[in-house]
Amino acid sequence: MTTPFNRPPCASALRMLVPTLIALACVPGQAAAAERKTAATADDTTLQTVTVNARRRTEAAQSVPTPMAVLSARTLEDQRLYRVQDLQQAMPSLNVSFMNPRQSSLSIRGLGNNPASDGLEGSAGIYLDNVYLGRPGMAVFDMLDIEQLELLRGPQGTLFGKNTTAGVLNISTRKPSFTNEGSVSSSIGEDGYVQNQGSFSGPLSETLAGRLSAYRTRENGYVMNDYNGHTLGGGTRQGFRAQLLLEPDEAFNLRWIADYNEEDSSAGTRSMFNTGPTINGVNRYEQRAAAVGATLARGRRHVNLDAEQSVTVFQGGTSLEANWTLPNDFTLTSISAYRWWDFTPRNDDELNVRVMDNVGQSARDKQYSQEFRLASPTGGAFDYVLGAYYFRQEMSNKVFTYYGDLADTWNGTPNGALNDVSSVGKGEIDTNSYALFAQGTWHLSERLDLTAGVRGTYEEKQARVRRGAPVGGAAVSGAAASVRNARVGAYDSGDLNLYSFSPSALLSLSYRFNEQLMGYASLSHGEKSGGVNLSVASAPVAGADSLLIGSERANDAELGIKSTLLDNRLQLNANLFWTQVHGYQANAYDDVNLTSYLTNAGTVRSRGAEFEATLRPVRELTLNLNGSYNDVRYLSYKDAPCPAEVAKASCDLSGHNVVGASKWIINGNGTYEWQLDPVRPYVNASYSFRSHAVGTIDDSRYGQLPSYALFNFATGLRGDLGDGQWDVSLWLKNVFDKTYYTNLWNSPNGAYTGVLGTPRTLGMTARYDF
Questions:
Q1: Which residue has the higher pLDDT, 566 or 20?
Q2: C-alpha distances out from residue 428 to 363, 400, 489, 581, Å
């Protein structure tokens, strides 16, 4: 029997599924393809109305008094944004910290940089088809058959299923259709890049429709391993999604979704950014590397690793969403979901000698959720949404370290303390979350609306952290035995419990000055519960209570406008924000025990301005520009980790900038399509700029992320074929081959390593929509 954490025999089936879908492309589309064809050739210079589900009912984005950015499926395709970590090139105030699927996080306005935290949910929530994803890594897959992405900024805990103090990324996939339609695409590029995608949808009966989608992506990577001449950073990703939509009448619909994704790659390969400080003429990293006989890599896109670097991920889930239209036009919604995620790494020690043979943390997660919502009809003086939510998560991890025969020299520990010693620890945490929520809007006049919302969330968390006795190594005594016991000695935290009640609230006032201009102001409060460090860290000395992390509480104020100008050819939105977070949850690094750990990093303030503009001056040209200015810093963080250049046990980082938060972000994109017949040429160009950012929480001057700008370009031809449309494009990403790091990490002996961004890549894509 296949269990959620055993690898299902899906790989061969996936390799067969994509060609099958491509073959289905020969089936001619009907109404859906005709609609797309009509839309593509319509003589219309106005912008299309974008609808969102930000307030748990479908409405125009320009009428929702909330700062948000929306990316359509067409935008994702034109800019080749096919992974979550690409989205920061198109959205303001967004940062995606990514090393591998486990060590990834989403931050909005500089809040939420807490990756690799198995015992803690993120500050920015991610939702897939109305289902909350308990781990950011659950969204690390190729975005297949996406309908739309919505980024909601600021606390969103009132209506969304888990309290989110920074914001929400809402991912919606395409639904099954009752007319035959589909899409197939194939891409090839440099560094062995090959991607195939396919989807097909149509009626199975008069009341039942289905949709099937699949993808497979393969790339070699772009970091050279000098040790064996292999390239790292690439691998294979593949997955599929199956759906059924039942609509027996206008009053009821039922949507079932099942998906599966897997990855086998060398994601997470870190390149040397800086070997750290030189103090009194000695660079500790370089000195100890020489002492163990290590040869450092020759350049930025080079590493020198003698052990395997790999990541395997298996994940999937299913959900059932039912919607009933009740008498008097009330809508009752039920969403039931189950998801699982299995992550296993194998990591080298960054050197070409046996300091560590393997080190890392595997993780397994199962989650169950149930949501009920009741939405009142609209059109009256007052409308509302209320509901209940339950979420259960069962999370476990395995922390392993296998030292080599040079461990003591590298770590500066007594001879024999760590050499050839192995250590394995286990952590587990079970979460039960219950919530009731309600939000209503009073239409005080034809122009003035008042919205108020409240949510109460109660959570229980039971956890335990254990580590077995060290295995291997020589028999030791004295100082060596003390060091061994401190680093890898047996430990059991016993039962750990957290109980918390987290209220959220919203008060918003919006005024429509005319049909083209709306202004709004809002105050909101969001909270998220605490968590548990699922690695031993310093608990044997500081006690088991040191593994517990307190709640995070955010107060937010917004002031903004949304406008539609120039006869609906220009949309211009802008807002000011001020957020203050107490008990900010962050990820720090313990250089003594060589491990990351969770901590409450005092009080943080995030303030700034954001804007989004879309202009269609003529029928052929569409321009997009968005950006943000964000000043986010610690107001109080007195017991903080020190940077490598400061020889102290703790530092005061009050007034310092928060890790990973660029003060300036600017994204621009333009598309021009010649309206010719029968072939329509087009060009697309995009620009993304991010200013300097602090690389690690200690704010070391040796770990600062430089600013960088990226240019992407594509050109192609579109045309009609039968009832469908074909598209062939040539694209170039990172046109000027900018070498840049997407994030940085602390490494042993005061060094800093990071994940390099994709180099200049030339490729071609062929697509057919029918």
A1: 566
A2: 10, 15, 19, 28
> Which amino acid would we find at residue 35?
E
**26/685 Cα distance (integer angstroms):** 32
φ, ψ of residue 174 to 5 degrees: the values are -70, 140
- Specify whether the CB–CB gap between 551 and 498 falls below 8 A: no
HSE-CB of 215 using CA atoms within 13 angstroms: 25
**Do the Cβ atoms of 447 and 513 come closer than 8 Å?**
yes
**What gap in Å lies between CA 316 and CA 303, rounded to an integer?**
33
| Least confidently predicted of 79-83, 380-384, 393-397 | 79-83
| Two tokens, residue 192 | 């062995």
Checking if the pLDDT of 369 tops 90, the result is yes
The enclosing H or E element of 38 equals helix 31-41
Name which of 232, 270, 242 is nearest 174 in CA terms: 242
- Is residue 22 very low, low, confident or very high in pLDDT (cuts 50, 70, 90)? very low
Q: Report which of 215, 223, 210, 211 is spatially closest to residue 198, judged by C-alpha positions.
A: 215
Return the ∠ at Cα 450 (arms to 445 and 456), rounded to 5°. 155
* Closest of 546, 445, 523, 455 to residue 119, by C-alpha: 546
Q: How far apart are CA 349 and CA 231, in angstroms?
A: 17
Lowest mean pLDDT among 8-22, 132-146, 283-297: 8-22
Structure tokens, 476: 């030791």
Of 307, 291, 265, the C-alpha closest to 402 is 307
- pLDDT value at residue 592: 61
CA 393 to chain centre: 19
Amino acid at 218: R
Q: Is 11 exposed, middle or buried (0-12, 13-18, 19+ CB in 10 A)?
A: middle
* Banded pLDDT at 595 (limits 50, 70, 90): low
The yes-or-no verdict on residue 363 having pLDDT over 90 is yes
From the centroid of its chain, how far is CA 646? 33
Contact (Cβ atoms closer than 8 angstroms) between residue 264 and residue 218: no
d(CA 340, CA 365): 5
Other beta carbons within 10 angstroms of residue 488's beta carbon come to 25
Residue 486: helix, strand or coil by DSSP? helix
DSSP string, 506-528: EEEEEEEEETTEEEEEEEEEEEE
Q: Where are the beta strands (DSSP E) in 376-485?
A: 382-403, 421-443, 448-467, 471-472
Q: How confident is the model at residue 541 (pLDDT cuts 50, 70, 90)?
A: confident
Residue-wise pLDDT for 165-216, tens only, equals: 899 999 999 999 999 999 999 999 999 999 999 999 999 999 999 999 999 9
Ordered alpha helix ranges (H), 45-120: 73-78
Q: What is the mean pLDDT of residues 573-590?
A: 89
DSSP 315-340: EEEEEEEEEEE-GGG-EEEEEEEEEE
Is 504:525 a contact under the CB 8 Å cutoff? Answer: yes
Q: What is the per-residue pLDDT across 52-78, written as a single tens digit (0 to 9) for each? A: 888 888 888 899 999 999 999 989 998
Residues 511 and 65: their CA atoms lie apart, in Å, by 9
Please state, in angstroms and rounded to a whole number, the distance separating the CA atoms of residues 524 and 160: 14
Give which of 742, 759, 760, 745 is closest to 706, Cα–Cα.
742
Query: What token pair was written down for 325?
Result: 């239209």
CA-to-CA separations, 592 to 486, 589, 652, 673, 699, in angstroms, rounded: 10, 9, 19, 58, 18
Q: Classify residue 422 as exposed, middle or buried by CB count within 10 Å of its CB (0-12, 13-18, 19+).
A: middle
Q: What is the DSSP letter of 273?
A: E
Angle at 752 between CA 750 and CA 757, to 5 degrees: 175
Query: Which 3 state secondary structure label does DSSP give 50?
Result: coil
Residues in the chain: 770
Cis, bond preceding 28 (omega within 30 deg of 0): no
